[in-house]
Design brief:
Helix 3 packs across helix 4, helix 4 packs across helix 5 and helix 5 packs parallel to helix 6. The protein is elongated, with a radius of gyration of 23 Å. A hairpin with a 2-residue loop joins strand 4 and strand 5. It contains 11 helices and 14 strands. The protein has 300 residues and is an alpha/beta fold. The protein folds into 2 domains: 218 residues, Rossmann fold (3-Layer(aba) Sandwich), CATH 3.40.50.300; 62 residues, Alpha-Beta Plaits (2-Layer Sandwich). The strands form 3 sheets. Strands 6-7-8-3-9-10 form a 6-stranded mixed sheet, with helices on both faces. Bound molecules: adenosine-5'-triphosphate and magnesium ion (MG). Adenosine-5'-triphosphate (ATP) binds next to strand 2 and helix 1.
Length: 300
């Protein structure tokens, strides 16, 4: 069963059409990376799934049922902006308040558990106002976990985090899918980071889904290339362009996207042209470049 099935979803804000017939399928257990440029409709879609906005048209099914079904609503955890917390209260007290709001039985035990899942068990006595951005985001996730959600919707949870904060968040999200068998939708612009955890991707543009794929499909779709450096990059590039059809100069490396082995290119440059290669490797484009390619193709 799919955790989310959205068909032909539309949302207008007055004259502005934010969603123009969006489709989305998120399998249960997925970590779904939701990608798109600013204003493409990610947050609007997430708010509609959570019932924070009312759709103009289309359908949203969660776990096979209409999204308005109260049983289904109870299964959703959400972090769309920063959590509403009292700055002068400790993390622990803020969590206990939220547990009381949600009528959680065995509150202290549950709070202890979710704080451990988000790597905040050592910081429970910190005042909320003294927490870093990464900690605050993880407190928001801990609050969402108190309801034992089957679906967690996170809008840009790694924005603004430093490398360490991102690494912890990555571990937390993977643990959540394991411990809570939870499906996670996570929108982000930080594609290199998303690529480390996502099992599925959805790319949205102009309020429509232009591509959905699994991480395996992305991997298979990502072009391989030979990357190399020589002393005279411009000359080597010009000469390689005579033999190969897809040669570029990117990030200080010449890239050859033709179906060719690295050794062949090195031998060609050295034996036929007398150019020594100082570094060579075979690589694949990542999510970031795949995304940029897709956007440049003008798919919409
Ligand atoms: N409350 C609102 N009133 C009017 N227009 C809105 C409202 N919320 C969103 N929009 C518009 O709808 C479109 C989609 O916005 P949305 O916030 O969903 O994009 P996004 O993909 O989340 O962008 P970002 O990456 O900047 O967060 C944008 O053009 C935005 O200006
Ligand atoms: Mg947004």
């Amino acid at each position: 069963m799919n955790a989310i099935e959205i068909r032909n979803l539309t949302k207008n804000f007055g004259q502005k059409q934010a969603l123009a017939g969006l489709n989305m399928t998120v399998p249960q257990g997925a970590i779904y990376g939701f990608i798109g440029e600013n204003g493409s409709g990610k947050s609007t879609t997430e708010k509609l799934i959570c019932g924070l906005l009312v759709p103009s048209g289309g359908s949203i099914k969660l776990f096979g049922r209409d999204y308005k079904d109260p049983d289904v609503r109870a299964k959703i955890g959400v972090l769309i902006e920063q959590p509403g917390c009292f700055p002068n209260y400790s993390v622990w007290n803020n969590m206990m308040l939220q547990a009381a709001n949600l009528d959680i039985p065995n509150a202290a035990e549950e709070v202890r558990k979710v704080l451990r899942v988000v790597h905040m068990d050592g910081s429970a006595s910190n005042k909320y106002k003294n927490c870093s951005l990464g900690m605050k985001q993880r407190i928001g996730i801990a609050m969402a976990l108190l309801g034992k959600p089957a679906l967690l919707i996170l809008d840009e949870p790694i924005n603004g985090l430093d490398a360490d904060g991102m690494r912890i968040m990555r571990d937390v999200l993977v643990d959540i899918t394991k411990e809570y068998r939870c499906t996670v939708v996570i929108s982000s612009h930080i594609l290199g980071e998303l690529e480390k955890i996502a099992t599925h991707y959805g790319i949205v543009r102009g309020g429509k889904m232009i591509k959905e794929m699994t991480a395996e499909e992305l991997e298979a779709d990502c072009r391989t290339f030979v990357a190399l450096q020589t002393k005279d990059m411009e000359m080597a590039r010009a000469l390689l362009e005579r033999k190969y059809s897809r040669v570029t100069l990117e990030n200080e490396y010449i890239r050859i996207y033709d179906d060719v082995k690295a050794e062949e290119v090195v031998a060609y440059l050295y034996h036929e042209l007398g150019i020594a290669v100082t570094e060579v490797r075979t690589d694949k484009i990542g999510l970031e470049e795949y995304y940029i390619d897709l956007m440049n193709k003008g798919v919409c």
